[in-house]
Design a protein that fits this description.
The structure is a homodimer. Chain A is of the alpha/beta class. Helix content of chain A is 23%, strand content 25%. Chain A has a single domain, classed as Dihydrofolate Reductase, subunit A. Chains A, B: It comes from Arthrobacter zhaoxinii.
Chain lengths: 218, 218
Protein backbone atom coordinates (compact mmCIF):
# COMPACT_ATOMS: atom_id res chain seq x y z
CA UNK A 1 0.00 0.00 0.00
CA UNK A 2 1.19 3.48 -0.86
CA UNK A 3 2.78 5.29 2.09
CA UNK A 4 3.45 8.95 2.80
CA UNK A 5 7.08 9.60 3.59
CA UNK A 6 9.24 12.44 4.82
CA UNK A 7 13.03 12.70 4.95
CA UNK A 8 14.69 15.75 6.45
CA UNK A 9 18.09 16.82 7.70
CA UNK A 10 17.93 18.65 11.00
CA UNK A 11 20.39 19.96 13.55
CA UNK A 12 20.75 18.56 17.06
CA UNK A 13 18.61 21.44 18.29
CA UNK A 14 15.88 20.55 15.80
CA UNK A 15 16.26 23.19 13.10
CA UNK A 16 15.45 22.09 9.56
CA UNK A 17 16.34 25.39 7.91
CA UNK A 18 19.39 27.60 7.96
CA UNK A 19 19.67 31.35 8.32
CA UNK A 20 23.08 32.45 7.02
CA UNK A 21 22.18 32.83 3.34
CA UNK A 22 23.53 35.86 1.47
CA UNK A 23 23.14 36.94 -2.18
CA UNK A 24 26.71 35.72 -2.80
CA UNK A 25 26.16 32.45 -0.90
CA UNK A 26 22.48 31.59 -1.54
CA UNK A 27 22.50 28.36 0.49
CA UNK A 28 24.81 29.61 3.25
CA UNK A 29 27.56 27.70 5.02
CA UNK A 30 25.16 26.18 7.55
CA UNK A 31 23.21 24.36 4.85
CA UNK A 32 26.37 22.58 3.81
CA UNK A 33 27.08 21.58 7.41
CA UNK A 34 23.50 20.42 7.94
CA UNK A 35 23.50 18.21 4.86
CA UNK A 36 27.19 17.23 4.77
CA UNK A 37 26.71 13.54 5.57
CA UNK A 38 23.92 13.18 2.99
CA UNK A 39 25.78 15.14 0.30
CA UNK A 40 28.85 12.93 0.81
CA UNK A 41 26.98 9.73 -0.03
CA UNK A 42 27.44 7.88 -3.29
CA UNK A 43 23.67 7.96 -3.81
CA UNK A 44 23.50 11.75 -3.56
CA UNK A 45 26.48 12.16 -5.86
CA UNK A 46 24.96 9.87 -8.47
CA UNK A 47 21.37 10.94 -8.22
CA UNK A 48 21.65 14.66 -7.59
CA UNK A 49 25.07 15.60 -8.99
CA UNK A 50 25.04 13.06 -11.86
CA UNK A 51 28.50 11.93 -10.75
CA UNK A 52 29.01 8.48 -12.24
CA UNK A 53 32.51 8.02 -10.84
CA UNK A 54 31.21 5.80 -8.05
CA UNK A 55 32.77 8.04 -5.43
CA UNK A 56 31.01 8.87 -2.19
CA UNK A 57 30.35 7.13 1.13
CA UNK A 58 28.63 3.75 1.14
CA UNK A 59 27.88 3.14 4.82
CA UNK A 60 24.95 3.96 7.09
CA UNK A 61 24.33 7.42 5.63
CA UNK A 62 24.21 6.02 2.08
CA UNK A 63 21.70 3.36 3.11
CA UNK A 64 19.26 6.06 4.20
CA UNK A 65 20.07 8.17 1.13
CA UNK A 66 19.28 5.26 -1.18
CA UNK A 67 16.04 4.63 0.67
CA UNK A 68 15.19 8.28 0.03
CA UNK A 69 14.72 7.57 -3.67
CA UNK A 70 13.27 4.05 -3.52
CA UNK A 71 9.61 3.36 -4.36
CA UNK A 72 8.63 7.02 -4.59
CA UNK A 73 5.87 7.53 -7.15
CA UNK A 74 5.20 11.22 -6.63
CA UNK A 75 6.60 14.11 -4.65
CA UNK A 76 5.02 17.12 -2.93
CA UNK A 77 7.03 20.19 -2.07
CA UNK A 78 6.45 23.73 -0.90
CA UNK A 79 7.01 26.78 -3.08
CA UNK A 80 10.13 27.63 -1.08
CA UNK A 81 11.79 24.29 -1.76
CA UNK A 82 11.14 24.75 -5.47
CA UNK A 83 12.67 28.20 -5.17
CA UNK A 84 9.69 30.35 -6.04
CA UNK A 85 10.29 32.65 -3.08
CA UNK A 86 13.86 33.29 -4.14
CA UNK A 87 12.85 33.83 -7.78
CA UNK A 88 9.38 35.42 -7.70
CA UNK A 89 9.78 37.37 -10.92
CA UNK A 90 11.33 34.74 -13.17
CA UNK A 91 8.64 32.96 -15.22
CA UNK A 92 11.33 30.68 -16.65
CA UNK A 93 12.47 29.42 -13.25
CA UNK A 94 12.56 25.61 -13.27
CA UNK A 95 13.73 24.90 -9.71
CA UNK A 96 17.10 24.40 -8.08
CA UNK A 97 17.93 21.03 -9.65
CA UNK A 98 18.94 21.75 -13.21
CA UNK A 99 17.51 20.21 -16.37
CA UNK A 100 17.51 16.63 -15.04
CA UNK A 101 16.12 16.89 -11.52
CA UNK A 102 16.69 13.90 -9.22
CA UNK A 103 13.00 13.08 -8.69
CA UNK A 104 12.10 11.25 -11.94
CA UNK A 105 8.40 11.30 -10.90
CA UNK A 106 5.54 13.82 -10.92
CA UNK A 107 6.30 16.63 -8.47
CA UNK A 108 3.49 18.79 -7.07
CA UNK A 109 4.58 22.24 -5.93
CA UNK A 110 2.22 23.95 -3.48
CA UNK A 111 1.76 27.60 -4.36
CA UNK A 112 -0.93 30.26 -4.44
CA UNK A 113 0.27 31.46 -7.86
CA UNK A 114 -0.83 29.45 -10.90
CA UNK A 115 1.99 28.43 -13.25
CA UNK A 116 2.19 26.20 -16.28
CA UNK A 117 3.43 22.66 -15.72
CA UNK A 118 7.10 21.97 -16.54
CA UNK A 119 8.28 18.79 -18.18
CA UNK A 120 11.92 18.14 -17.35
CA UNK A 121 14.37 15.44 -18.42
CA UNK A 122 14.39 12.03 -16.76
CA UNK A 123 10.66 11.79 -16.06
CA UNK A 124 10.38 14.68 -13.64
CA UNK A 125 7.36 16.93 -14.16
CA UNK A 126 6.56 19.93 -12.00
CA UNK A 127 2.88 20.76 -11.53
CA UNK A 128 1.69 23.68 -9.45
CA UNK A 129 -1.19 23.24 -7.01
CA UNK A 130 -3.18 25.46 -4.72
CA UNK A 131 -4.46 22.87 -2.26
CA UNK A 132 -4.71 21.80 1.36
CA UNK A 133 -2.32 19.05 2.48
CA UNK A 134 -5.16 16.50 2.20
CA UNK A 135 -6.08 17.62 -1.33
CA UNK A 136 -2.48 17.66 -2.45
CA UNK A 137 -2.00 14.18 -1.06
CA UNK A 138 -5.04 12.87 -2.92
CA UNK A 139 -3.70 14.31 -6.18
CA UNK A 140 -0.20 13.01 -5.60
CA UNK A 141 -1.40 9.56 -4.57
CA UNK A 142 -3.42 9.27 -7.77
CA UNK A 143 -0.34 10.24 -9.78
CA UNK A 144 2.00 7.90 -7.89
CA UNK A 145 0.70 4.76 -9.58
CA UNK A 146 0.81 2.73 -6.38
CA UNK A 147 4.18 4.10 -5.33
CA UNK A 148 4.82 6.10 -2.18
CA UNK A 149 4.32 9.84 -1.94
CA UNK A 150 7.16 11.81 -0.47
CA UNK A 151 6.64 15.20 1.12
CA UNK A 152 10.03 16.61 0.29
CA UNK A 153 10.06 19.91 2.14
CA UNK A 154 10.70 22.51 3.16
CA UNK A 155 10.32 22.36 6.87
CA UNK A 156 7.06 24.35 7.04
CA UNK A 157 5.39 22.17 4.43
CA UNK A 158 6.54 19.02 6.22
CA UNK A 159 5.21 20.33 9.52
CA UNK A 160 1.81 21.00 7.93
CA UNK A 161 1.61 17.35 6.87
CA UNK A 162 2.92 16.03 10.20
CA UNK A 163 0.45 18.10 12.20
CA UNK A 164 -2.38 16.92 9.97
CA UNK A 165 -1.40 13.34 10.82
CA UNK A 166 -0.76 12.48 7.16
CA UNK A 167 2.79 11.07 7.38
CA UNK A 168 3.39 7.30 7.69
CA UNK A 169 7.19 7.25 7.63
CA UNK A 170 9.41 10.01 8.95
CA UNK A 171 13.18 9.87 8.65
CA UNK A 172 15.39 12.60 10.08
CA UNK A 173 19.15 12.75 9.73
CA UNK A 174 20.35 14.66 12.80
CA UNK A 175 23.64 16.49 12.24
CA UNK A 176 25.68 17.02 15.42
CA UNK A 177 25.62 20.80 15.22
CA UNK A 178 23.73 23.49 17.13
CA UNK A 179 22.22 26.07 14.75
CA UNK A 180 20.32 28.07 17.36
CA UNK A 181 17.82 29.59 14.94
CA UNK A 182 15.57 28.78 12.00
CA UNK A 183 12.38 26.73 11.63
CA UNK A 184 12.06 24.02 14.27
CA UNK A 185 10.80 20.70 12.93
CA UNK A 186 9.39 19.40 16.21
CA UNK A 187 7.26 22.31 17.45
CA UNK A 188 3.65 21.43 18.27
CA UNK A 189 4.21 17.72 17.71
CA UNK A 190 4.07 16.46 21.31
CA UNK A 191 3.45 12.69 21.36
CA UNK A 192 4.31 12.19 17.67
CA UNK A 193 5.91 8.87 18.62
CA UNK A 194 2.59 7.37 19.78
CA UNK A 195 1.51 4.59 17.44
CA UNK A 196 4.85 4.52 15.63
CA UNK A 197 7.84 2.25 15.75
CA UNK A 198 10.87 4.43 16.41
CA UNK A 199 14.45 3.51 15.53
CA UNK A 200 17.73 5.36 16.01
CA UNK A 201 21.03 4.58 14.29
CA UNK A 202 24.19 6.67 14.43
CA UNK A 203 26.61 6.79 11.51
CA UNK A 204 30.39 7.22 11.72
CA UNK A 205 29.83 10.69 10.22
CA UNK A 206 28.26 11.73 13.54
CA UNK A 207 24.81 11.92 11.98
CA UNK A 208 22.05 10.01 13.75
CA UNK A 209 19.18 8.63 11.69
CA UNK A 210 15.86 8.48 13.55
CA UNK A 211 12.78 6.95 11.95
CA UNK A 212 9.13 6.96 12.96
CA UNK A 213 7.14 4.26 11.20
CA UNK A 214 3.41 4.17 11.67
CA UNK A 215 1.70 0.80 11.62
CA UNK A 216 -0.59 0.15 8.70
CA UNK A 217 -4.13 1.08 9.61
CA UNK A 218 -3.32 3.21 12.66
CA UNK B 1 43.59 17.43 34.88
CA UNK B 2 40.19 17.94 36.47
CA UNK B 3 37.38 18.35 33.94
CA UNK B 4 33.91 19.84 34.17
CA UNK B 5 31.24 17.39 33.06
CA UNK B 6 27.53 17.38 32.36
CA UNK B 7 25.20 14.44 31.74
CA UNK B 8 21.56 15.01 30.91
CA UNK B 9 18.61 13.11 29.49
CA UNK B 10 16.70 15.06 26.87
CA UNK B 11 13.88 14.41 24.44
CA UNK B 12 14.31 14.37 20.68
CA UNK B 13 12.95 17.91 20.63
CA UNK B 14 15.56 19.02 23.17
CA UNK B 15 13.59 19.29 26.38
CA UNK B 16 15.48 18.43 29.56
CA UNK B 17 12.53 18.91 31.90
CA UNK B 18 9.01 17.52 32.00
CA UNK B 19 5.73 19.27 32.65
CA UNK B 20 3.16 16.68 33.69
CA UNK B 21 3.91 16.59 37.43
CA UNK B 22 0.97 16.51 39.84
CA UNK B 23 0.87 16.36 43.65
CA UNK B 24 -0.01 12.65 43.38
CA UNK B 25 2.67 12.00 40.75
CA UNK B 26 5.51 14.40 41.67
CA UNK B 27 7.83 13.31 38.83
CA UNK B 28 5.10 12.80 36.22
CA UNK B 29 4.88 10.07 33.59
CA UNK B 30 7.06 11.96 31.14
CA UNK B 31 10.06 11.92 33.49
CA UNK B 32 9.92 8.14 33.52
CA UNK B 33 9.80 8.02 29.72
CA UNK B 34 12.64 10.54 29.43
CA UNK B 35 14.92 8.58 31.76
CA UNK B 36 13.69 5.03 31.03
CA UNK B 37 16.86 3.80 29.33
CA UNK B 38 19.09 5.20 32.09
CA UNK B 39 16.86 3.93 34.90
CA UNK B 40 16.90 0.44 33.35
CA UNK B 41 20.69 0.14 33.55
CA UNK B 42 22.44 -2.08 36.05
CA UNK B 43 24.54 0.91 37.14
CA UNK B 44 21.49 3.03 37.97
CA UNK B 45 19.85 0.16 39.84
CA UNK B 46 22.96 -0.45 41.92
CA UNK B 47 24.04 3.09 42.50
CA UNK B 48 20.74 4.92 42.88
CA UNK B 49 18.29 2.20 43.96
CA UNK B 50 20.82 0.15 46.00
CA UNK B 51 19.67 -2.93 44.11
CA UNK B 52 22.46 -5.50 44.50
CA UNK B 53 20.66 -8.22 42.53
CA UNK B 54 22.80 -7.52 39.45
CA UNK B 55 19.71 -6.94 37.35
CA UNK B 56 19.51 -4.19 34.77
CA UNK B 57 20.78 -3.60 31.24
CA UNK B 58 24.52 -3.89 30.56
CA UNK B 59 24.89 -2.57 27.01
CA UNK B 60 25.46 0.87 25.51
CA UNK B 61 23.19 2.70 27.94
CA UNK B 62 24.94 1.13 30.94
CA UNK B 63 28.36 2.12 29.64
CA UNK B 64 27.32 5.79 29.69
CA UNK B 65 25.60 5.34 33.06
CA UNK B 66 28.78 3.90 34.58
CA UNK B 67 30.82 6.74 33.14
CA UNK B 68 28.39 9.08 34.86
CA UNK B 69 29.78 8.12 38.25
CA UNK B 70 33.47 7.59 37.36
CA UNK B 71 36.18 10.02 38.51
CA UNK B 72 33.74 12.60 39.88
CA UNK B 73 35.24 14.41 42.87
CA UNK B 74 32.51 16.95 43.48
CA UNK B 75 29.05 17.80 42.19
CA UNK B 76 27.20 21.07 41.62
CA UNK B 77 23.42 21.21 41.34
CA UNK B 78 20.67 23.78 41.28
CA UNK B 79 18.19 24.25 44.10
CA UNK B 80 15.45 22.67 41.97
CA UNK B 81 17.39 19.44 41.45
CA UNK B 82 17.94 19.19 45.20
CA UNK B 83 14.21 19.73 45.66
CA UNK B 84 14.23 23.04 47.51
CA UNK B 85 11.58 24.52 45.23
CA UNK B 86 9.25 21.61 45.87
CA UNK B 87 9.88 21.69 49.64
CA UNK B 88 10.47 25.35 50.50
CA UNK B 89 9.14 25.14 54.06
CA UNK B 90 10.76 21.92 55.23
CA UNK B 91 14.00 22.66 57.13
CA UNK B 92 14.62 18.90 57.43
CA UNK B 93 14.52 18.30 53.67
CA UNK B 94 17.62 16.31 52.64
CA UNK B 95 17.05 15.96 48.88
CA UNK B 96 15.36 13.38 46.68
CA UNK B 97 17.90 10.58 47.14
CA UNK B 98 17.27 9.17 50.62
CA UNK B 99 19.81 8.71 53.40
CA UNK B 100 22.54 7.29 51.15
CA UNK B 101 22.55 9.50 48.05
CA UNK B 102 24.36 8.16 44.97
CA UNK B 103 26.97 10.92 44.79
CA UNK B 104 29.48 9.85 47.49
CA UNK B 105 31.31 13.19 47.10
CA UNK B 106 30.82 16.80 48.24
CA UNK B 107 27.72 18.26 46.55
CA UNK B 108 27.29 22.03 46.24
CA UNK B 109 23.69 23.19 45.93
CA UNK B 110 23.23 26.65 44.42
CA UNK B 111 20.61 28.64 46.33
CA UNK B 112 19.95 32.13 47.55
CA UNK B 113 18.78 30.84 50.94
CA UNK B 114 21.49 29.89 53.45
CA UNK B 115 21.14 26.42 54.95
CA UNK B 116 23.32 24.31 57.21
CA UNK B 117 25.44 21.66 55.51
CA UNK B 118 24.12 18.08 55.57
CA UNK B 119 26.33 15.07 56.07
CA UNK B 120 24.74 11.98 54.56
CA UNK B 121 25.76 8.33 54.48
CA UNK B 122 28.31 7.05 51.97
CA UNK B 123 30.46 10.18 51.79
CA UNK B 124 27.86 12.52 50.31
CA UNK B 125 27.75 15.98 51.87
CA UNK B 126 25.40 18.75 50.76
CA UNK B 127 26.67 22.30 51.10
CA UNK B 128 24.62 25.33 50.09
CA UNK B 129 26.21 28.12 48.11
CA UNK B 130 25.15 31.52 46.84
CA UNK B 131 27.61 31.93 43.97
CA UNK B 132 28.09 32.58 40.27
CA UNK B 133 28.85 29.54 38.10
CA UNK B 134 32.55 30.52 38.09
CA UNK B 135 32.68 30.87 41.88
CA UNK B 136 30.81 27.62 42.43
CA UNK B 137 33.21 25.87 40.08
CA UNK B 138 36.24 27.20 41.95
CA UNK B 139 34.80 25.93 45.23
CA UNK B 140 33.84 22.54 43.81
CA UNK B 141 37.20 22.09 42.06
CA UNK B 142 39.02 22.73 45.32
CA UNK B 143 36.83 20.14 47.04
CA UNK B 144 37.18 17.56 44.24
CA UNK B 145 40.73 16.59 45.18
CA UNK B 146 41.86 16.36 41.58
CA UNK B 147 38.70 14.57 40.46
CA UNK B 148 36.24 15.91 37.92
CA UNK B 149 33.41 18.27 38.79
CA UNK B 150 30.00 17.34 37.52
CA UNK B 151 27.26 19.89 37.00
CA UNK B 152 24.36 17.57 37.69
CA UNK B 153 21.36 19.70 36.81
CA UNK B 154 18.72 20.78 36.47
CA UNK B 155 18.48 22.04 32.96
CA UNK B 156 18.63 25.75 33.82
CA UNK B 157 21.73 25.32 35.94
CA UNK B 158 23.42 23.28 33.21
CA UNK B 159 22.58 25.95 30.64
CA UNK B 160 24.15 28.64 32.86
CA UNK B 161 27.41 26.66 32.90
CA UNK B 162 27.27 25.85 29.17
CA UNK B 163 26.63 29.46 28.20
CA UNK B 164 29.53 30.58 30.42
CA UNK B 165 31.79 28.19 28.48
CA UNK B 166 32.68 26.24 31.61
CA UNK B 167 31.84 22.69 30.48
CA UNK B 168 34.55 20.39 29.07
CA UNK B 169 32.50 17.22 28.56
CA UNK B 170 28.81 17.15 27.73
CA UNK B 171 26.88 13.91 27.40
CA UNK B 172 23.21 13.85 26.47
CA UNK B 173 21.06 10.77 26.28
CA UNK B 174 18.37 11.56 23.71
CA UNK B 175 15.14 9.64 24.25
CA UNK B 176 13.08 9.10 21.06
CA UNK B 177 10.05 11.01 22.30
CA UNK B 178 8.60 14.44 21.52
CA UNK B 179 7.67 16.30 24.71
CA UNK B 180 6.69 19.59 23.08
CA UNK B 181 7.21 21.75 26.18
CA UNK B 182 9.56 22.36 29.09
CA UNK B 183 13.04 23.85 29.35
CA UNK B 184 15.06 23.48 26.14
CA UNK B 185 18.67 22.48 26.69
CA UNK B 186 20.02 23.88 23.43
CA UNK B 187 18.63 27.42 23.37
CA UNK B 188 21.22 30.18 22.88
CA UNK B 189 24.05 27.70 22.30
CA UNK B 190 24.61 28.17 18.55
CA UNK B 191 28.03 26.81 17.57
CA UNK B 192 28.52 24.83 20.80
CA UNK B 193 30.21 22.11 18.75
CA UNK B 194 33.12 24.38 17.74
CA UNK B 195 36.34 23.23 19.36
CA UNK B 196 34.83 19.97 20.54
CA UNK B 197 35.02 16.40 19.37
CA UNK B 198 31.46 15.20 18.88
CA UNK B 199 30.35 11.56 18.93
CA UNK B 200 26.95 9.92 18.50
CA UNK B 201 26.03 6.36 19.44
CA UNK B 202 22.56 4.84 19.40
CA UNK B 203 21.56 2.12 21.84
CA UNK B 204 19.08 -0.70 21.20
CA UNK B 205 16.75 1.08 23.64
CA UNK B 206 16.28 3.81 21.03
CA UNK B 207 18.26 6.31 23.08
CA UNK B 208 21.09 8.10 21.28
CA UNK B 209 24.12 9.20 23.27
CA UNK B 210 25.80 12.34 21.98
CA UNK B 211 29.00 13.66 23.53
CA UNK B 212 30.87 16.94 23.11
CA UNK B 213 34.45 16.73 24.36
CA UNK B 214 36.50 19.90 24.43
CA UNK B 215 40.23 19.60 23.81
CA UNK B 216 42.47 20.35 26.77
CA UNK B 217 43.52 23.98 26.66
CA UNK B 218 40.85 25.16 24.20
Amino acid sequence: MSRVRVDLNISLDGFATTTDQTPENPFGDDWGRLTAAYAATRTFRQRVLHDESGEGTTGVDDRYAARYFEDVGAEIMGAGMFGLHANPNDPEWCGWWGEDPPFHVPVFVLTHEPRHPLEMAGGTTFQFLTATPEEALDTATAAAGGGDVRVGGGASTVRDFLRAGLVDDLHVGIAPIILGRGVRLWDDLRGLEAGSQVTAESAPSGTTHVTFRRSVGS
